[in-house]
Amino acid sequence: MLTQIDRQMVRSWYRRSVGPLLAELTGKRSHRTGPRIAVVGNCQSFGVAYAMQLLDPLASVDRFAVHMKAHVDVERLAKTLSGYDYVFSHEFQSGLLTCGDSGDLRRLLPKAIFFPFFWFPAYHPDQIHLLDETRGNAGVFGPLGPYHSALALFAFRKGLTLDEANALFNENVFDEVGYFDAWNAAVAELVDNAAKYSLDLREHVVRWSRRGVFMWSNNHPKSFVLYDLAKTLTARAGLPVRDVDWDYYAIDDLGRSDVFPVYPPLAERFGHPGSYTFKRGNYRLSSSVGDSLTLPQFLAGSYKLYGRSAPSQISNPRVENWLADVTVGDKLVALARENSKAGLTHVR
Q1: Three-class SS state of 139
Q2: Which are the contacts of 304, defined by CB distance < 8 A and separation ≥ 6?
Q3: Is 285 exposed, middle or buried (0-12, 13-18, 19+ CB in 10 A)?
Q4: What is the four-CA torsion angle of 333, 334, 336, 338, rounded to 10 degrees?
Q5: For residue 122, what are the CA distances in angstroms to 127, 160, 226, 228?
Q6: The predicted structure's pLDDT at residue 6
Q7: Which of the 8 DSSP states describes residue 112?
Q8: Which of 61, 98, 170, 332 would be 53's cystine partner, CB 3.0–4.6 Å?
Q9: Is the CB of residue 134 less than 8 Å from the CB of residue 310?
Q10: What is the pTM of this model?
Q11: Mean pLDDT of the 294-309 span
Q12: Where do the structural domains in the chain lie, given as residue ranges?
């Protein structure tokens, strides 16, 4: 079965080899008279590619999605990308292409401009990913796809009831585990990582935060973040940068995916509304409006998954540290039971 990047490779080859012949026969010339631009990367790359198309409507912009195992190898990818005027790429690890990784792409295609992957956990410090050690550390999917709650997993591993797990989602618990202190470290990590690619995002972060919560989850930025990144990359490549009313043309592709909530006690600190509503991913909006889960539903679904899994199949370093630290573990259990007795649980 062909993956998205495999199909894009075929389309790119077809347009380059067959397209000119068809144009000669039909007399229909493409209106894309600007540069040919390729954007390579994970789920965040669509937003960058779409923004680049708006920044230059005459450009031909193709996106090559590298986020699941594909048949194509890195040498064939590099050969295809060599036909583009400009190439922008995320880093990607080995195993996604038949052979090779982004390091090989750098070597084979020196003109490629690499850009950072966004990771910003300050709004969603409870969000974690789980790894199944019995399947080569493969990601574990639950009621909210790849996104899990550290507190939910801790509660299950400690044998807490669903009501007691629910009661962990309160201000005193968030304070105990340091969720209110995540902002400065998250900003520093984001800015420092961007600096490795010769990008200065310090002023951008300030502006993004003034607009509101700028992440759907730890690894899914909102579209205006990717638009600013596209403008920065375009300017760095020496391409002209024009002003675009982004809010008018915006497509927030990542908003269709799973959305982790900003818990109300955390949101209050940022001056924004929050919730305990977990939105499930839906990429078929034409057939369904999608689905969302309340906190009790999310916890019940998580417990169901964890109940049929061995500890080695639902591993996370942070939770393992909580479980190993008797002082931390006992404190969280005590807070859960105190909050539960006080009626501090959430029904919606």
Answers
A1: strand
A2: none
A3: exposed
A4: 160
A5: 10, 27, 18, 20
A6: 66
A7: P
A8: 61
A9: yes
A10: 0.90
A11: 97
A12: 1-21+34-114+224-247, 127-182+260-341
Cα Rg of the chain, angstroms: 23
Which H helix or E strand runs over 170?
A: none
The CATH class that applies to domain 1-21+34-114+224-247 reads alpha beta
What pLDDT is attached to residue 196? 96
pLDDT greater than 80 at residue 255: yes
Rounded to the nearest 5°, which phi and psi values hold at 218? -60, -30
Pick the closest to residue 200 from 223, 222, 231 (CA basis): 231
Q: How many residues does the chain have?
A: 348
Other C-beta atoms closer than 10 Å to the C-beta of 198 total 10
The two structure tokens encoding residue 86: 């400009």
- Does position 18 have pLDDT exceeding 60, yes or no? no
Residue 207 — very low, low, confident or very high, per pLDDT cuts 50/70/90? very high
With a cut of 90, say whether residue 154 has pLDDT above it.
yes
Share of the chain above pLDDT 70, in %: 92
Fill in the amino acid letter for 299.
L
How far, in Å, CA of 120 to CA of 114, rounded?
Answer: 19
Please report the sign of the dihedral spanned by the C-alpha atoms of residue 7, residue 9, residue 11, residue 13. negative
Strands annotated E in the chain? 36-41, 60-65, 86-89, 113-114, 127-128, 131-132, 138-139, 148-149, 215-217, 220-221, 278-279, 292-293
Q: Which of 65-79, 102-116, 270-284 has the lowest mean pLDDT?
A: 65-79
User: Residue 21 pLDDT more than 90?
Assistant: no
Name residues whose C-beta falls within 8 Å of residue 49's C-beta, 6 or more positions apart in sequence: 37, 39, 61, 62, 63, 230
